[in-house]
Write a structure and sequence with these properties.
Strand order of the largest sheet: 1-2
Largest sheet: 2 strands, antiparallel
Radius of gyration: 18 Å
Shape: globular
Bound molecules: 3-methylbut-3-enyl trihydrogen diphosphate, magnesium ion
Helix content: over 70%
Structural class: mainly alpha
Mean pLDDT: 97
Number of strands: 2
Low-confidence stretches: none
Number of helices: 15
Distance between the termini: 18 Å
């Protein structure tokens, strides 16, 4: 059931997404840059962040048009983070979303610029959605110094602590924002508890990403498995060990499921998503 709600949102998103971004300034980009950007956004992927945004938008009563633009902003920002994450200077990964990484296919300089373009595009899409200033500010912080970029920096430096700050910043903050920004946009008061819930869901997602790097295979993941240990990355598993990490993920999922019944009483998706993500295979 969770899977069918998830896939419903996902296909709704994909139907609208590529035509929407063709209406942005992307159409003015040089042909190869535009192609490389579309390439990075394609391939086998989950569209988790857009799905979260679409659900939050529908719970908060935003229009379809606004919802798709917000969801698209999150997918663009996320994809930029992946394109840069795979670069030789970062994780040096040749495979992404079941296809050669953007820098393998188009070269490093183009991949860097695809990331830059996608980041700018994410702001353009939020402006198109006419989100209020405080939502824009929240997004800017979440993807930058108070979130993803700082987290990626800590990851590169191998700076990990027991509170999982690195993971909360690099992954959880954006997932939190994908859920909370729609509520913030709709002027809902409960957005703080939903922020907290989103952040924990994001943490759960990164722990399962670290677990899957060990147990998953490259075909199912669409990216190179076993890379974290080979590169001695400071993953959650490197910190706590496999069994303890798994246990923590289970505890987080249970807590999230209970909390979701209170703060998302009408959302079947949010109530069942924690356990769904805990047991995901790709
Ligand atoms: C991978 O994200 C990077 C992390 C934050 C763990 P996803 O696993 O959501 O990647 P796609 O979007 O499905 O390719
Ligand atoms: C990446 O974390 C998080 C980002 C902000 C992109 P990982 O380095 O673990 O992501 P994968 O495993 O390459 O997708
Ligand atoms: Mg990385
Ligand atoms: Mg990586
Ligand atoms: Mg990983």
């Amino acid at each position: 059931l969770t899977e069918s709600i998830f896939n419903n949102h996902k296909s709704r998103f994909e139907r609208a997404f590529f035509s929407l971004i063709q209406k942005t300034s992307l159409k003015a980009a040089p042909t190869v840059l535009r192609e490389a950007t579309i390439y990075a956004l394609s391939g086998k992927n989950k569209r988790l962040r857009p799905v979260l945004s679409l659900e939050a938008c529908s719970l908060s009563g935003l229009t379809d048009d606004t919802a798709v633009s917000i969801a698209a902003a999150f997918e663009c920002l996320h994809t930029y983070s992946l394109v840069h994450d795979d670069l030789p200077a970062m994780d040096d990964d040749d495979l992404r979303r079941g296809q050669p990484s953007t820098h393998i296919k188009y070269g490093e300089s183009t991949a860097i610029l695809v990331g830059d373009l996608l980041q700018a595009l994410s702001f353009e899409l939020l402006l198109r959605a006419k989100v209020p200033t405080r939502a824009l500010e929240y997004f800017a912080r979440a993807v930058g110094a108070r979130g993803m970029v700082s987290g990626q920096f800590l990851d590169m430096q191998g700076q990990q602590d027991n509170n999982l700050t690195l993971h909360r910043l690099k992954t959880a903050k954006l997932i939190e924002a994908a859920i909370a920004l729609p509520f913030l946009t709709a002027g809902e008061k409960l957005y703080l508890s939903r922020m907290r819930w989103g952040r924990e869901l994001g943490l759960l997602f990164q722990i399962t990403d670290d677990l899957l790097d060990i147990t998953g295979d490259s075909a199912a993941l669409g990216k190179t498995a076993g890379k974290d240990a080979a590169q001695k990355k400071k993953t959650v598993v490197a910190l706590f060990g496999f069994d303890e990490s798994k246990k923590r993920a289970q505890e987080i999922a249970q807590n999230l499921e209970q909390t979701a019944r209170l703060i998302f009483p009408t959302s079947e998706l949010f109530q069942s998503l924690p356990v769904f993500l805990l047991n995901r295979a790709g």
